[in-house]
Design brief:
The structure holds 2 protein chains of 2 kinds.
Chain A lengths: L2 H19 L3 H15 L2 H4 L1 H20 L4 H89 L4 H38 L9 E3 L17 H13 L5 E6 L6 H22 L6 E7 L10 H7 L1 E6 L2
Parallel strand pairs in A: 2-3
Antiparallel strand pairs in A: 1-4, 2-4
Helix pairs in contact in A: 2-4, 2-5, 4-5, 5-6, 5-8, 6-7
Chain B lengths: L1 H22 L7 H12 L6 H22 L3 H44 L8
Helix pairs in contact in B: 2-3, 2-4, 3-4
The chains are: A alpha+beta, B mainly alpha.
């Protein structure tokens, strides 16, 4: 057989074969799209959608067998391609939904962990306060014992007749001095109480984008335990948060430059958390306050003097909204 | 004369029947396609890159179908509307998927920041 004859026969056979079997591009695409969708997560996550795509592809295949060249076959194949893509997209959406649900669950877990840590800090603060109260009680007992000894000694002196007058004079003098000291102490206490009352009634203004320094919030040295005198300014902060229920704040802790940077960073964060815990216990929603520890990075005064360091040790409210 | 009148009457009836037959040929049903396109637009498909292509295709297919119907190719127009509907529905699904993806990203970032702000170890996924 001549080569030209062979070529014509092969070309004719190929033409016949091609006419009989070549599917339209829409059907080829639909088959690939369905294959891809069924190999992915759609089978597990959105089986109903994948089934719709399969039905659409079956309809297209049937139409292709009945009438391979019709526009309807191509349109049905096109629809099958889109159904397969839809199944794949819906599977991706289901994955996104699962991620969102997991993230929300993680958020709640993190909040629980924060509350637990805060409670532990509070318990530690309480234990520290109990120890100090015990120490104070011991000191009082020691003072009473000393007074008893002094009284016994005075009695002994009094019993010595030659010193009686002198003892009486000394006691009178001591009593007068004690009264004087007591009066002065009472006056100081009264002034402090009045100041505390004035401070508590003073309004803290929370404006968006502004920073407020909570002057008067103090902690025990190297600890995140609030001192009692901090209550006045914290009450003002609480009043401001109650008066502005939509406000959210960032509570930042700051330290002086004494100690390592890492230690100050941790301490400043714990102090900010202690302030937030105090406010949460008073009833402010925890999600209105976030905490941050700035450590020694943002001083507002010189760290070379006691006064400057005291000023740098502070708590700030930054009003976010 | 009588036969002539009867023939004219029969012709008139036949002509009226032809007119009525033409007038009652079924119109194309665009509603599923236009609904899918409207839903895609409401879902913001035109602003989402992955969805906007399919919204555009759906609109073009609807236009083409109307043009074919205008030329009398109603069967082909009706078949083409299947494409418009499928593209519109895919645009809706892709738009919603994009919104879900954004929400998931934001939720994960929210957890990461909460843990960072409170010095908690980050979750391993």
């Amino acid at each position: 057989m001549k080569p030209i004859t062979s070529f014509i026969i092969i070309a004719f056979a190929g033409l016949l074969f091609g006419c009989a079997t070549a599917p339209p591009s829409e059907l080829v695409n639909a088959r690939l799209a369905y294959q891809q969708a069924s190999a992915g997560q759609a089978a597990q996550l959105v089986p109903a959608e994948l089934h719709k795509a399969q039905d659409a592809l079956t309809a297209a295949e049937k139409s292709f067998q009945d009438d391979p060249k019709s526009f309807h076959t191509r349109d049905l194949a096109y629809v099958a391609d889109r159904k397969a893509k839809m199944a794949e997209a819906l599977a991706a959406t289901a994955v996104g939904n699962a991620s969102t649900a997991k993230a929300n669950k993680d958020y709640e877990a993190a909040q629980t962990e924060i509350v637990k840590n805060t409670k532990e800090d509070l318990a530690a603060s309480q234990r520290s306060a109990d120890i100090k109260a015990g120490q104070l009680a011991d000191a009082n007992i020691a003072a009473q014992n000393a007074k008893s000894l002094a009284d016994a000694e005075a009695l002994r002196v009094k019993q010595q007749g030659d010193a009686a007058v002198e003892v009486q004079r000394v006691k009178d003098s001591s009593s007068a001095e004690a009264r004087s000291v007591k009066q002065a102490t009472d006056a100081d206490a009264l002034r402090a109480a009045e100041q505390k009352s004035r401070d508590a009634n003073t309004i803290i203004v929370l404006e968006k984008g502004k920073t407020v320094v909570l002057k008067g919030v103090t902690f025990e040295t190297n600890k995140a335990t609030l001192r009692d005198e901090s209550e006045t300014i914290l009450t003002r902060a609480y009043n401001a948060m109650v008066a502005n229920p939509s406000v959210r704040v960032e509570i930042s802790g700051h330290t002086d430059n004494v100690g390592s940077e890492q230690a100050n960073q941790t301490l400043s964060l714990k102090r900010a958390q202690a302030v937030r815990t105090w406010l949460v216990q008073k009833g402010i929603a925890s999600n209105r306050m976030k905490t941050v520890g700035k450590g020694m990075d943002e001083p507002v005064a010189s760290n070379d003097t006691d006064a400057g360091r005291a000023e740098n040790r502070r708590i700030e409210f930054y009003v976010q909204q | 004369m009588r036969h002539l009148n009867m023939a004219m009457a029969a012709g008139s009836i036949l002509f009226a029947a032809m007119i009525a037959g033409c007038g009652s040929s079924p119109a194309i049903n665009k509603e599923p396609s236009t609904s899918a396109i409207s839903a895609a637009e409401e879902a913001g498909a035109s602003k989402i890159p992955s969805a906007s292509l399919y919204l555009q295709l759906a609109k073009e297919e609807l236009d083409n179908a109307q043009r074919l119907a205008g030329h009398g190719d109603k069967e082909e127009a009706q078949s083409l509307l299947l494409r418009a509907q499928a593209d519109g529905e895919l645009a809706v699904v892709l738009s919603r998927g994009d919104a879900e993806k954004t929400e998931a990203t934001q939720a994960i970032e929210r957890v990461r920041k909460l843990r960072q702000d409170n010095q908690l170890p980050q979750e391993r996924n």
